[in-house]
């Protein structure tokens, strides 16, 4: 018996993937003509210390000031702790956060403080005015691991997902309870590149697409050559290396964003060290698997 | 022709109507209760000493993936149970080698495909539950997703509504979802769900 329920649930997504496949593999090159904005962790911490961290606001009814400002301090002191939450579709914003903190922590903390105070704020040239539903939801996300008590990260992820829209969000643009776990929050490759370009203010280039793998002859060499001079984010099919069921047939689609930290090879065994979900992970895979999982390679100027 | 159609319709109806997910889960848990509970308690003790998670990544449960978790790094490696590399790695990273090996064998025998510790927060204070999933041998419809029985072991008694659904707490009556799933009561501390993903 065909499970029509499953097909019905995913038909819109499948239709989009089909349409996307017609467009084929794309090469995205995004460059920014604006002056590069850089700041340091020390500047950001100094700014944060001057703020009254006990102030309450009715603009964010469920955000607790202590949890909000403690979280901002943690973000500055240890940017690697950004945690997009268990079972959410926030991984793209998690990787973006890592990059933003690398480039402009002061910009981040100023933006978050303004957002908290006024309910709207501008980051570099992009103005964010979150919807009422998102404002209401911030501070209420539950059972997402440590994200539950990280109210600044809840605000940040929800506001980003509310503002940036790609074709994957086409049928679900308005936030409703639980949408952090749905396509409302998902990020396709060009949306990711656009977000990095806008919020990090640096040159970003990418190879690959949402459906077709990058036309790179030797993926390992490609990554190894660039890892020291640029920051690399990978758009991968996480279902292959982090299986969630025992089905042998799986959709070959990317599902996750990571920041590549190290890569090395010994024989056919490739050791990857990457950042995602608030920490670093090391795993060993074959060259074939590496090629199989990567759909997008995004290089960001250091 | 009509007779064949009728025959297939009856078969399909029978298959569609037979054994609800609740019956499967309760039955499996009750049958394996002793072993599953002992796996959970053994894991809890080992995990408290040095955190880790275990998953069987293949259908026959012959490949075990171990996540060795430290403050700065999570190492994920795959082994065949009993392989020397597994023991060497456990030893290298200061795990209780015999304890983890015993757990892997027990999980394999009981078809426990995944076990880990999940953190959550009550009144902004951290709590933990042990999450494990089991792959019982069940009939599967064509093109239907696989089904796993997932169990959540809380350390303290939880609130449930009249339908047996796990709640956030007694006051709010908000249904609590773990990994996007509604969980149902087995005991006041243990609950279950049927899920398409084992982790």
Helix % of chain B is 25-40%
Tell me the major beta sheet of chain A: 7 strands, antiparallel
- Report the mean per-residue pLDDT of chain B as an integer: 86
What proportion of the residues of chain A is helical, as a percent range?
Answer: 25-40%
Question: Are there runs of chain A of 5+ residues with pLDDT below 50, and where?
Answer: 21-35
Question: Greatest interface and its residue counts?
Answer: A-B, 31 and 38 residues
H/E element order of chain A = HEHHHHEEHHHEHEHEEEHE
Integer tally of domains of chain B:
1
Description:
The complex is a heterodimer of chains A (302) and B (199). In chain A, helix 2 (41-49) runs parallel beside helix 5 (105-118) and helix 4 runs parallel beside helix 8 (189-200). Chain A starts with a helix and ends with a strand. Chain A has 302 residues and is α+β, with helices and mostly antiparallel strands. The model of chain A is unreliable at 21-35 (pLDDT under 50). Chain A folds into two domains: 4-32 and 204-301, no CATH class; 41-189, no CATH class. Chain A has eleven helices and nine strands. Chain B has one domain. In chain B, a hairpin with a 2-residue loop joins strand 4 (112-122) and strand 5 (125-134). The longest helix of chain B has 29 residues, at 21-49. The N and C termini of chain B lie far apart (45 Å). The model of chain B is unreliable at 13-22 (pLDDT under 50). Classes of the chains: A alpha+beta (302), B alpha+beta (199). Strand 8 (279-286) of chain A pairs parallel with strand 3 (73-79) of chain B.
């Amino acid at each position: 018996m065909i499970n029509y329920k499953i097909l019905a649930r995913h038909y819109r997504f499948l239709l989009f993937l089909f349409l996307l496949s017609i467009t084929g593999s794309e090469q995205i090159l995004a460059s920014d003509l604006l002056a590069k904005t850089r700041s340091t962790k020390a500047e950001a911490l100094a700014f944060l210390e001057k703020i009254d961290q006990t102030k309450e606001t009715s603009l964010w009814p469920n955000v607790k000031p202590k949890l909000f400002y403690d979280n901002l301090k943690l973000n500055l002191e240890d940017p690697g702790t950004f945690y997009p939450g268990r079972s959410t579709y926030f991984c793209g914003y998690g990787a973006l956060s890592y990059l933003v903190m690398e480039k402009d922590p002061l910009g981040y903390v100023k933006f978050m403080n303004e957002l908290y105070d006024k309910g709207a704020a501008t980051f570099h040239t992009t103005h964010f005015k979150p919807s009422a539903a998102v404002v209401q939801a911030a501070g209420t996300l539950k059972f997402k691991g440590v994200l539950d008590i990280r109210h600044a990260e809840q605000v940040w992820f929800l506001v980003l997902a509310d503002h940036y829209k790609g074709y994957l969000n086409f049928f679900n643009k308005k936030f409703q309870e639980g949408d952090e776990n749905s396509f409302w929050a998902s990020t396709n490759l060009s949306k990711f590149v656009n977000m990095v370009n806008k919020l990090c203010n640096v040159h970003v280039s990418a190879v690959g697409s949402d459906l077709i793998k990058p036309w790179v002859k030797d993926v390992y060499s490609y990554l190894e050559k660039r890892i020291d001079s640029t920051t690399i984010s990978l758009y991968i099919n996480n279902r292959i290396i982090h299986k969630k069921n025992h089905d042998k047939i799986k959709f070959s689609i990317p599902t996750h964003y990571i920041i590549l930290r190290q890569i090395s090879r010994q024989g056919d065994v490739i050791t990857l060290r990457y950042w995602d979900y608030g920490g670093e992970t090391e795993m060993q895979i074959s060259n074939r698997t590496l090629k199989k999982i990567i759909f997008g390679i995004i290089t960001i100027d250091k | 022709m009509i007779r064949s159609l009728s025959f297939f319709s009856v078969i399909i109806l029978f298959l569609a109507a037979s054994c609800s997910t609740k019956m499967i889960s309760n039955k499996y848990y009750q049958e394996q209760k002793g072993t599953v509970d002992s796996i959970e308690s053994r894991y809890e003790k080992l995990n408290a000493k040095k955190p880790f998670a275990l998953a069987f990544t293949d259908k026959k449960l012959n490949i075990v993936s171990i996540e060795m978790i430290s403050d700065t790094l999570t190492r994920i490696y795959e082994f065949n149970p009993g392989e020397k590399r597994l023991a060497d790695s456990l030893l290298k990273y200061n795990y209780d080698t015999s304890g983890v090996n015993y757990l892997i064998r027990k999980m394999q025998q009981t078809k426990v495909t995944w076990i880990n510790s999940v953190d959550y927060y009550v009144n902004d204070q951290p709590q933990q539950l042990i999450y494990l999933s089991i792959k019982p041998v069940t009939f599967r419809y064509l093109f239907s997703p696989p089904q796993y029985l997932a169990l959540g072991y809380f350390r303290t008694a939880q609130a449930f509504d009249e339908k047996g659904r796990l709640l956030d707490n007694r006051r709010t009556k908000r249904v609590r979802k773990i990994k996007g799933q509604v969980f149902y009561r087995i005991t006041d501390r243990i609950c279950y769900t049927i899920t398409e993903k084992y982790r």
